[in-house]
Amino acid sequence: MANNDWILDVLVDLKSFASANGLGVLAEQLDDTMLIAAAEIASVRDGAVNSYGEQSPLGSHIGRNGSHRSA
Questions:
Q1: Which superkingdom does the taxonomy of this entry point to (predicted)?
Q2: 15, 46, 63, 71 — which has fewest CB within 10 A?
């Protein structure tokens, strides 16, 4: 599997640019995006799967209709 950490570097660069150019809301959004990206990359790296046996980006067990499935 290819190393996906480069995307975090790109997001940091984008946030720096946004902050330096008065784009505060975008910079804040990019903070959230970095957290999501880091979690998803870690999840893929750990091989998390969902309840359907498919790769799960955040390791969640959410049913196809969006409802939480319990055991």
A1: Bacteria
A2: 71
Do residues 27 and 9 lie in contact, with contact meaning Cβ atoms separated by under 8 Å?
no
44 Cβ contact partners less than 8 Å away, ≥ 6 residues apart: 1, 4, 55, 57
Query: Alpha-carbon distance 5 to 67, whole Å?
Result: 31
Q: For residue 55, is it within any domain?
A: no
Q: Which SS3 state, helix, strand or coil, does residue 13 take?
A: helix
Asked whether 46 and 59 are in contact (CB, 8 A), the reply is: yes
Instruction: Give CA–CA dist 38/36, Å, rounded.
Output: 5
Report yes or no on 41 lying in a domain: yes
* Length of the chain as a residue count: 71
